Amino acid sequence: MLTAPGKGDVPNIVHGVNHETLKPDERILSCASCTTNAIVPPLKAMADEYGVLRGHVETVHSFTNDQNLLDNYHKSERRGRSAPLNMVITETGAASAVAKALPDLDATITGSSIRVPVPNVSIAILNLQLGRATDRKEVLEHLRNVSLTSPLKRQIDFISAPDAVSSDFVGSRHASIVDAGALKVEGDNAILYLWYDNEFGYSCQVVRVVQYVSGVEYPTYPAPAA
């Protein structure tokens, strides 16, 4: 089991979205990335309700051990600059992994990343052109209901606290948390701000996949609505 996006024919699994597509004879599988797990569940929730024509994800991500602590050589030049001292523009594989997790999504999703000097908790800004016009109140109600009663309730959380900041989400077991106060909607354009604990929250998603393939996945109550 890989804890990074799989290439080639390796399936990218986001628990709650496509884990039931796993075949018994799969020998190698990927749990994609923390950012993929953060954006795919809300992307599916939005696509199911409104349709998605195209989108872009910009993740403001905690620095990782692939970066240098001090300016030094790195095969990716920007990642060679000191991680604790800089915001660093870099690439993300999350957007390309979306197609594997949501093969029925007929939309182009692009993505990029900015690494920032915090050790944990990131935020993905998901900018979507929807298939129909809506308004902020409707989208908030939809995402809140998804977080409470849908099959994605273990993946998506929802917060309306007006003073929420990144450290509030350390230890969250969800793949992503919708920030209600930051949501922007105008016509067929929606911008979602999705917090995620890129360490523990992602690890919980990996464990869920392990439980599923080993046949010991635990039920949750109340049971999600079909």
From TrEMBL:
It comes from the Bacteria. Residues 40-195 form the Glyceraldehyde 3-phosphate dehydrogenase catalytic domain. PROSITE patterns: GAPDH. Gene3D superfamilies: Dihydrodipicolinate Reductase, domain 2. GO terms for molecular function: oxidoreductase activity, acting on the aldehyde or oxo group of donors, NAD or NADP as acceptor. Keywords: Oxidoreductase. Pfam families: Gp_dh_C. This is Glyceraldehyde 3-phosphate dehydrogenase catalytic domain-containing protein.
